Amino acid sequence: MIKCHLSRLMGERKLKASEVARATGLHRNTVGALYFERASRIDLDAIDALCRYFECTVSDLFEYQPGEHPQ
Fold first, then answer.
1. Residue 15 and residue 25: Cα distance in Å, rounded?
2. 46: how many CB neighbours lie within 10 A of its CB?
3. Cβ neighbours for 27, distance < 8 A, ≥ 6 positions apart
4. Which of 12, 18, 24, 60 is deepest in the core (most CB within 10 A)?
């Protein structure tokens, strides 16, 4: 299972989804789906925008956890 740490990154900076969406140019629904870990796919451009905005690596944003499967 792939875990998304967007909610942690946003919480550390006390950011709202609308602020992240506005700053990155991503749709609010995309940010929300990642925040609540409901996204089943994500565009590489979206990952790039988030990494640039949070000044982080892909591994800071996503984590692979073997053996777990989404419900």
1. 15
2. 18
3. 21
4. 24
Q: Which tens digits make up the pLDDT trace of 9-58?
A: 999 999 999 999 999 999 999 999 999 999 999 999 999 999 999 999 99
pTM of the predicted model over 0.70: yes
Residue 40 DSSP symbol: S
Domains, the chain, ordered by start: 2-64 (1.10.260.40)
Contacts of 46 (CB under 8 A, 6+ apart): 24, 26, 30
What's the rounded mean pLDDT across residues 6-11? 98
Task: Answer for the pair 50, 24: CB distance below 8 angstroms, yes or no.
Answer: yes
